[in-house]
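User: Okay, second chain of the day. Same drill as before: sequence in, structure tokens out.
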Amino acid sequence: MDNNINEDKIKKHQEILKKRQLEIVKAEILKDKEENKLDKLKPWKWPAMKRREMEESLKKPDMILVFLINLKKVIEGPILAKIYGGNFLVIRNHVYRFNPDRVLSFGKYKAVIAREFDRELVGIDDYKELVEKDMTSQTPGDRVNINDPVLIKAMINAKLQDMSAPKKEIPWLLIGIGIVAVIAVFFIFSGQNPTPKPA
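Assistant: Same drill. Structure tokens below.
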């Protein structure tokens, strides 16, 4: 009977903790949204050499800026590259297929993103295909971020589970001292009864 009462108390305590922690996490998220830290950031300026290349890409229609992702996981660029025949780019003796659908813009500049090991440029033209694959897969929402509210709730629940009720730690040092004390008392009191001497 006592176990059921204790279990009920523990469950109620855990529910109260979850509600409090959920409120704390929600408050943090709302605070971040209100502060909107991104608005406070100053725009970064490109170095003069890169700006010159970027301005040159505006003047020549057959030139485009390329951000190259190399095998060392470093983004290089922007690199000014010429478009050959309207279909190909050559960057460091590697040929890439130019697809106008994969041209990205930032400000007044147009650019593409290329991976060193892939002939195709990076783009978003396969978005519909990715969404269809994602929805028909066994774990929808795994690749395309259309289920963000679900993921946010899952993150909050995971955080709450990490911060569950505090574990009861057994004070091993005190238990050890107690055992030594019991053994010492036993030997002290057992030594007071003298054994009878043989006559």
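The first strand starts at residue 63 and ends at 69.

User: Thanks, on to the next one.
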